[in-house]
Design a protein that fits this description.
The protein is mostly beta strands and about 200 residues long. The chain has strands spanning about 10, 20-25, 30-35, 40-45, 50-55, 65-70, 80, 85-90, 95-105, 105-115, 120-125, 130-135, 140-145, 150-155, 160-165, 170-175, 180-185.
C-alpha cells in the first residue's frame, strides 16, 4: 500500500487477520504507484517526489536495490511489470509512458511511448503480454506493441476514466468511468493488429 507520507506498507494476507509485514521508507512525497514482479521477489514503488525505488523482497527487511530519477519516472503513477518479468512500464511526464528492459535489479529505458494528451491513470498488459493498454482520464485508451513501442490501436470513450482492468486471458478490457459506468472493449487477438 502506498501512503501520502511516502511510506509503502507490505501486508501478509495469508493469516485470517492480515498483518503488516514491513514498512518501506525513502520517498518524500505520496507513493503513487506500486508494482510487484511476477515472481514476487521485487517491488517497484513510484512517487510524486520523482523517484522510483526497486526493492528486494527476499531480504528481511526488504532492501532497496536501485533508485531511478528523471523524466521517465516523474510522477510514478504507473509502475508495472509484464507477466514474463522482462519488461517494466513507468509513467513519466503526465501524458508519457516508458518501456524498460529488466535485467535482474537493473532497469534500462527501451522505448518512450508518446500519444496520450492527458494524465495517464492506469495501464495493463494484455493479449498474452504482447501489448499494453493505457488509459488517460479523458477517455482515450491506447494499445501499444510491447516489442516495438508503436501505437497499434486507439479508442475514445465518453466521460472521465479512472482505471482499466483486463480479463484473465487479456482479450477483453474493462474501463471504469467516474459515473460508475463500465465499458468492455473486445481486444481480440494480437494478430488482429498485425501490420500496424
Amino acid at each position: 500500500v502506498g501512503n501520502y507520507d511516502g511510506t509503502v506498507q507490505l501486508w501478509d494476507l495469508t493469516p485470517p487477520e492480515p498483518r503488516e509485514k514491513a514498512e518501506l521508507k525513502g520517498h518524500t512525497a505520496y507513493a503513487t504507484g506500486i508494482g510487484f514482479s511476477p515472481d514476487g521477489k521485487r517491488l517497484a514503488s513510484g512517487s510524486f517526489d520523482q523517484t522510483l525505488f526497486l526493492w528486494d523482497l527476499t531480504q528481511n527487511p526488504p532492501l532497496r536495490q536501485a533508485t531511478l530519477q528523471g523524466e521517465s519516472v516523474r510522477n510514478g503513477w504507473v509502475t508495472l511489470f509484464s507477466a514474463d518479468g522482462r519488461t517494466f512500464t513507468s509513467s513519466g511526464g503526465f501524458p508519457t509512458l516508458y518501456f524498460w528492459d529488466v535485467n535482474g535489479s537493473e532497469l534500462k529505458v527501451r522505448t518512450k511511448l508518446e500519444g496520450h494528451t492527458g494524465f495517464v491513470m492506469s495501464a495493463a498488459y494484455v493479449l498474452g503480454g504482447k501489448a499494453l493498454a493505457s488509459q488517460e482520464e479523458n477517455g482515450r485508451v491506447i494499445l501499444w506493441s510491447v516489442a516495438t513501442g508503436k501505437k497499434i490501436h486507439e479508442w475514445k470513450l465518453p466521460g472521465t476514466y479512472h482505471q482499466v482492468v483486463p480479463t484473465r486471458d487479456g482479450r477483453y478490457l474493462a474501463a471504469l468511468n467516474k459515473n460508475s459506468l463500465v465499458y468492455i472493449l473486445r481486444l481480440g487477438a494480437f494478430s488482429d493488429y498485425s501490420g500496424k
